[in-house]
TrEMBL record:
The name this protein goes by in its record: Transposase IS4-like domain-containing protein
Matching Pfam families: DDE_Tnp_1 (PF01609)
GO biological process, one term: DNA transposition
Alphabetized InterPro entries for the sequence: Transposase_11 (IPR002559)
Phylogenetic placement of the source organism: Bacteria, Bacillati, Actinomycetota, Actinomycetota incertae sedis, Candidatus Hakubellales
Signal peptide annotation: none
GO molecular function, one term: transposase activity
Domain Transposase IS4-like intervals: 107-257
Amino acid sequence: IKAKGYERMMLPLVKLLTTYSLKILLGISSMNQVPFLLFREIALLQMIGFTAQEIKEGICNRGKGKSVPMHKNTLADMLDRLSEEELSYVLNGAASLLVKKGFLGGETFILDATDLPTTEKCQGRGKKKTLKEKWDRRAKKTVEVEEIVYGFKVIVIQELRSKIIVAAQVVKIQEHESKYTLSLLAQAQRNLGSRKIALLLIDNAFMDGVTLWEIKHNLKIDFITRVRTNMDVATDARSFRDQPPSPWVKKAEREKDGLAVVGIAGLTTYGQYGEEEHKKKRYQKDFQANPINCVMVTCWKGKEYP
C-alpha cells in the first residue's frame, strides 16, 4: 500500500550533522527548543549551508511553511541512527575545527553533562531509574515516584566565555560522569593543540578525589568544584566562618553584588583527595590527608547562608 501525500527525500547528511553540532554548541538541551532557539537564527543557518529558500520553505514537506529548514523530529530521527562513537566523532571534529579557526580566547573551561532522553525503542540507548516529584491528589502532598528514563548522556568540556565545546563524549544515560573525566580532558587537549586549559570548573557530579588529584598534580590544571553540604570538608570549612583573618583564612566582600566569601587554605578533611593508594589508607590511624583549598560563600545576592 502506497501512502498518499508522502515523498521520500534524500537530505544532505552534512547539514543534519552541522545543525546538531550547533544545537550542542549553543547549549540547547531539548529538541523541542530547536525551532525557537536555533531555527530562528537565520545568519547561523546560512553559515552552515542552508539557503534562504530552504530556511523559508523547508528542505522537505515535513514542517513545510513554518519558516524552518526542517522539522525538529527529522533531526531527532537522524540522531537515532547514529552510534555513540559516531556522535562523539562529529562533536569532536566540529570542536577541533572551531579551535583551528581561532574562535576560542580564554583558558577557563567547564566540565558538564546533559541527559539526552530517547524512546525505549532507540537502538543502543541506556536506561536509569530516577525519582520525580508529583502531586498526590488523594494525599494532598508532593510525593516521589520512581520513573525509568531511556537515552544517552553527552559529557562536554566547553570554553567559559564563548560556550564553545572543545570535547564531547556520548555514553549511555546511566553511566557515571566521573568515569570519563580524564579521557575527555585528553580529547580536549588534543582538540586544543597548543592551547592550554588553565582552570576547569567542574560540576559536582564528577567529584572523585583520585581524579581531582590527577587533574591538579599530574595534568597541572587548577579546578573548582562544589562540595556537597554533608561532606566532612564542608563541615570543616563552616567552622572557620567566624574566625578572624589569618595567613590561612581570608575574607572578602563585594557590597554592590551582595557577595561575601571566606577562603580557607589547607583543609585536611577530604580523605579521598590523592592517588589511589593514598585513598585506600584513609581509615588507618596514622592517615594524613592531603591539603586542599576551599572558598565558602557566606552571602549571595544579599542572602546570608549559615
